[in-house]
Amino acid sequence: MFGNVLLLLFLFINIYNDPADAQKKKETLLSEKLTQMMEWTSKRSVIRMNGDKFRRFVKAPPRNYSVVIMFTALQPQRQCGVCKQADEEFQMLANSWRYSSAFTNKVFFACVDFDEGSDVFQMLGMNSAPTFLHFPSKGKPRKSDTYELQVRGFAAEQLARWVADRTDVQIRVIRPPNYAGPLLLGFLLAVIGGLAYLRRHNLEFLFNKNVWAFSALCFVLIMTSGQMWNHIRGPPYAHKNPSTGQVVRKKPFFMICEQTIQTGSNCVYFQSYIHGSSQAQFVAETHIILLFNAAVTMGMVLLCEAATSDMDIGKRKIMCVAGIGLVMLFFSWLLSIFRAKYHGYPYSFLMT
User: Fold this and answer.
1) Which of 11, 105, 129, 310 has the smallest C-beta neighbourhood within 10 Å, fewest atoms?
2) What is the pLDDT along the chain (352 residues), one digit of tens a residue?
3) Given its phi and psi angles, is residue 234 left (phi above 0), alpha (psi -120 to 50 degrees) or beta?
4) Which residues contact 258 (CB under 8 A, 6 or more apart)?
5) Which H helix or E strand runs over 337?
6) Handedness of CA 31, 26, 112, 277 (dihedral sign)
7) CA triplet 111, 117, 123: central angle to 5 degrees?
8) Closest Cα partner for 324 from 348, 307, 341?
């Protein structure tokens, strides 16, 4: 009887102490994880994670802090120019958080490179980069915890707004001063002023309508080809073969392809000058569009000159035929590009 009482007392003490011990272990583990995250952050604002670190510090409980992670592919063989641009903006955001009053241990910034954590990509079912995800302190990530890169872009200011929406941490992005633009503008104004001074007694060229028409036409062609988009987004020139560094073309101009990161042992690359998505483009694509638009414009100019010029009838016929040829050929190629990027475009290809 006495032995049974002792056994029941022993079981009662163990049951009573287990929750307290479990809570103490949980607090100790959480403290260790926070200390380690803060130590890494003190060395670099963006913590580099592999599969083991991701599973231990992001997926495994306990965790009372949020983690904003950029999944990327920065190795040179991946040929991901957008990843490099996005990484610069993400680093700027993390540095602005680390060295400001917004710094807190309630949120951390990290990145997972495909070549260092391909198992993480496979675990999350991701096959593209860059991708930004927010892992909240409680619960699983929701749809709003995935950053809409195609809609918002990857500027640090846009990322800061998204982080504020998800974590309530307000980060003021601090960009380093860039003097390249003002210096270039000053140099251009100095050159124009110098030329005007040297020709101050002969400024008839300022009133030449052909000079102004050509300048305006060049500006319009540059803007309509997508150069501003390149300046803002920083896309790669074209997809290249990682082993040879050369662009491979299997079809003239209009091979529509896309680079993807696969979670298997091999990474499949496709090469092209024209991006297959209507939401993206390559630098080479803008050059092609610029040349095509210029050729169509030249054809229209030739047609106008053929109709209004005082030249003999033979030259005017040649100009007319050349103008029609340029307009039909290059405009048909433009339609082909539009149809390749906007699937279902109603007009057919004239070049395959």
Assistant:
1) 310
2) 555 555 555 555 554 455 667 777 878 888 888 888 899 988 889 999 998 999 889 888 888 889 999 999 888 888 787 888 889 999 999 998 888 887 888 899 999 999 888 888 988 888 888 899 999 988 888 888 889 887 788 888 889 999 998 888 888 888 877 777 788 888 888 987 887 777 777 777 677 777 777 788 788 887 777 877 777 766 777 765 544 445 544 433 333 333 333 333 333 333 367 777 777 788 888 888 888 888 888 988 888 888 888 888 888 888 899 989 998 988 888 888 887 777 666 655 444 4
3) left
4) 270, 275, 276, 277
5) helix 313-341
6) negative
7) 105
8) 307
Any idea what DSSP says for residue 238?
S
- CB contact burial 235-272 (16+ within 10 A = b; e otherwise): bbbbbbeeeeeeeeeeeebbbbbebebebeeebebebb
Residues written for the chain = 352
